[in-house]
Amino acid sequence: MLSRQQRQRLPELLDVTSSGLGLLDEKMLLLVFRAANWDPFLLCTSARVCKRWADILKRVIWKEFCLSRAPKMVSHLLSGGRDGGIPGGWEPLGKLMFYCPGCHASNHFIAKTIPGHFVWKTKFSRTSGKQFLVPQCQADILYISKICEHLDNGDDDDLGLYRGIFRAFGTSKTRRMLLERGAKLEENELCPFCCDKVWSMNDAKLVPPSAIKGLGAYEDNVEYFVCVNGHLHGMASLISASDSEFSAEE
Predict the structure, then answer these.
(1) pLDDT band at residue 45, thresholds of 50, 70 and 90?
(2) C-alpha span between 58 and 47 (Å, rounded)
(3) Spatial contact of 60 and 31, defined as CB atoms under 8 Å apart
(4) DSSP code of 141?
(5) Which residues, at least 6 apart from 1, have a Cβ–Cβ distance to it below 8 Å?
(6) In DSSP terms, which residues pair with 185 in a beta bridge?
(7) pLDDT at 84
(8) What gap in Å lies between CA 206 and CA 208, rounded to an integer?
(9) Rounded to an integer, what is the distance from CA 144 to the centroid of its chain?
(10) Is 11 in a helix, a strand, or coil?
(11) Taken in order 230, 235, 236, 241, is the CA torsion positive or negative?
């Protein structure tokens, strides 16, 4: 409820000037999204209503969404930032929490195109993230999602899609190794979360055997990318149960 002082200032609060957004809109949207349990569908739809709402979501609401969905992970990510912020911004981090970006064929990965889609619940793990780091970079902290499985793709293999984020990527050993190895940013691939440039970890020879084993994937068909802000997205051809059983029998 607005205070008496705020009610008296309603004309001023509703006014959007070059110096800022209407306070009433901001508080109203916070109450609405909190009551809706930070429904990602509602957030995405509301961002299209008008520029004012889109600005409020980008500046305030996405941060609250992230803090409500993964408070421990977000708190840890914030503690590694130089300026107390999230590299790439809050909206890409929010998108990473509920959006599987799908996949398409790349230089090191053969697969049919799978469109991106919402994922209602996703767990991110630091322990699983260690599997995606080469031995020289084990001091880095990487949160990786649970695999989003796309099974029964006709003649194609079963696919596993995954995403993640580095803590303090700008000062990480992984980034340092990418630069030391002269890894080039991909020309035809962008981060699906922040739309920034990415490195192919395959091209940089930074895909460890532990990642392939942890994914339960074929060795020659695993790929993941890391963007300049530390967002990760990847795909893998999963070994089917029948293939595992056949290998065990042999």
Answers:
(1) confident
(2) 9
(3) no
(4) E
(5) none
(6) 199
(7) 65
(8) 6
(9) 9
(10) helix
(11) positive
| CA atoms of 226 and 172, how far apart (whole Å) | 12
| Integer Cα distance of 61 and 66 in angstroms | 9
Identify the bridge partners of residue 163 per DSSP, sorted by sequence position: 233
Based on C-alpha coordinates, what's the Rg of the chain?
Answer: 21
Residues in the chain: 250
* 14-49 per-residue burial string, b: 16 or more CB within 10 A, e: under 16: eeeeeeebbbbbbeebeeebeeeebbbeebeebbee
69-94, pLDDT tens digit by residue? 999 999 999 987 666 678 899 999 99
Contact (Cβ atoms closer than 8 angstroms) between residue 97 and residue 70: yes
User: In angstroms, rounded to a whole number, what is the distance separating the alpha carbons of residues 185 and 204?
Assistant: 10
User: What does the H/E/C string look like for 56-68?
Assistant: HHHHHHHHHHHHH
Q: Which residues pair with 149 in a beta bridge?
A: 160
Closest CA to 150 of 102, 185, 220: 102
- Reference 172, options 139, 220, 146; nearest CA is 139
3-class DSSP state of 160 = strand
- pTM value is 0.83
DSSP designation for 17: B
Give the C-alpha separation, 226 to 177, whole Å: 13
Tokens 């070059």 correspond to 18
